[in-house]
Amino acid sequence: MKRTAVALLFFAVLIGLWELAVRSGRWSVVLLPSPIFVGEYIWGALLDGTLVESTWVTLKRLIVGYIAGVLIGLPLGLLTSTSQLLEDTLGALALGFQTLPSVCWVPLALVWFGQTEGAMLFVVIMGTVWSVIIATDHGARNIPPIYARAARTMGSEGFHKWTRVILPASLPFLVSGMKQGWAFAWRSLMAAEIYVTILTGFGLGHLLHYGRELNAMDQVIGIMIVIVVIGLLVDRLLFSPWERFLHRRWGTNVKEA
Amino acid sequence: MEAAPPVLQTRQPKLVVDGVSKWFTSKRNVVQALDRVSLEVAEGEFVCLLGPSGCGKSTLLDIIAGLTKPDEGRVLADGKQIQGPGQQRLVMFQESALFPWLDAFGNVMFGLKLRPDLTNKERRRIAENYLELVGLGKFKHAQVHELSGGMKQRVALARALAPDPQVLLMDEPFAALDAMTRDQLYDDIQRIWMESRKTIVFVTHNVREAVCLGDRIVLMTPSPGRISQIFDIPLPRPRDINSPELASYSSRIAAALKGTRQGEASE
């Protein structure tokens, strides 16, 4: 409760300072709109449905692409962890592409898929998959060998071993890898949406882009706030429960408990 | 060397190690870890493999477990050659090797879930019984990191016992524990062994520990690993590790152990 109150107070002060800066008159209200106008824009966009619709379009791309990326990346990562050959080939490829900012895939995606959902999905998957491969590979390789030995003596083999021993044992690496994959996917999708118009759906990035075209800074800042809030929510809803589980089970970060 | 308990003499040995040799190859050289080791273990017998580090005792245990394949020779369990690890021979390791993503109960359940002949209700009941048996009934839902070293090894013991293996293989399970915890565990393991009559092969480098626990002590010498002597320990049970009778056996075996180590640097 106290922590929430402190956080709320912090943001209230921040908005207050922002309003003060606007009222000082040093900057044009076109460049720096008052937080009240931004709030009005968000409220209006919520009421007329544009915000909900765009958020949904964006999240759909993100979720579908992200899940696909994880589903592709997990088995590939497990695979590269089993053989030196795959590590030297596929692993090296993953490492290379992971360092490539995923917005660099956008031009290629447009040529291959046109201005469609397919292009957006491709960009999101490319943002996700390499991080997940590397994290899974790293996690599976760093499992204390004694876990695998103990599991073998108890009769755990094949699929059972992979799902009940290797995967859970590498969870600490997996969660951080999936979090990183999420961050890359989210950034690349926003970049792609700002960069190109997709005919099949109007996402948050497009709203942001058109806000700039129309010189509507209240819209630009409003959408930025929405994007930040979504990022925070995903972190709280998707990753925090996993991290709490890890801390509880592995006994890491005990101070917080 | 002669007096195995009379009841066991007529039966087929539980484990037969028959001329087992093992080499390990590293970049620089080839090391022979075991040289034509042969050993028979009777059903219900408690055998300790004793020797300095590098004598191949853990390797031998791995081979009996089926985790490592011998380069020569073979190991029979109930007259059948061991091809790989199996639930009939469960291993307890020096570190507890408990899975941190499961709680104490979940760890004991792990092996039980791989027994298709049990219902879930039976599995839960068995797991609870074994946690009770090792004195951790109240710690069912404790996380692994919350347990002390001794408690971890108790959970590991419950996990190894729960699927009801015929043979329990223990690889220096108490080496990392403090002396007081160890003494308590010696009592517990003897009590559990006398109740369950499992066949136990116990690897250790601690002479008193071996004398306290073993019916027989198999003394091994390093480079290459060989069996040098076998001692029978006819002391009554339960044995107290601090008793004078036990100490006299220990000093004899320690002397023999010293003899085997002449010519190499002492630890």
Q: What is the element layout, followed by pairings?
A:
The complex is a heterodimer of chains A (257) and B (267).
Chain A: H1 2-23, H2 35-48, H3 50-82, H4 84-99, H5 106-113, H6 117-141, H7 145-153, H8 158-169, H9 171-195, H10 204-213, H11 217-250
Helix pairs in contact in A: 2-11, 3-4, 3-6, 3-9, 3-10, 4-6, 5-6, 6-9, 7-8, 9-10, 9-11, 10-11
Chain B: E1 15-25, E2 30-41, E3 46-50, H1 57-65, E4 72-77, E5 80-81, E6 89-92, H2 104-112, H3 120-133, H4 149-161, E7 167-171, H5 179-196, E8 199-204, H6 207-213, E9 216-221, E10 226-232, H7 244-260
Helix pairs in contact in B: 2-3, 2-4, 3-4, 6-7
Report on this model:
The complex is a heterodimer of chains A (257) and B (267). Chain A starts with a helix and ends in a 7-residue tail after the last helix. Chain A is mainly alpha-helical and 257 residues long. The model of chain A has no long low-confidence stretch (mean pLDDT 90). Chain A is 81% helix and 0% strand. Chain A is built from 11 helices and no strands. Chain A is globular, with a radius of gyration of 22 Å. Chain B contains 7 helices and 10 strands. In chain B, the strands form 2 sheets. Chain B has a 6-stranded mixed sheet, with helices on both faces. A 4-stranded antiparallel sheet of chain B has the order 2-1-4-5, with helices on one face. The interface between A and B is medium-sized, with 21 and 26 residues.
Q: Helical percent range of chain B?
A: 25-40%
Cα gyration radius of chain B (Å): 18 Å
The secondary-structure element order of chain A is HHHHHHHHHHH
**The biggest beta sheet of chain A, please?**
none
> What Rg of chain A is obtained from the alpha carbons, in whole angstroms?
22 Å
Sum up the overall morphology of chain A in one term. Answer: globular
Q: Which structural category fits the helices and strands of chain B?
A: alpha/beta
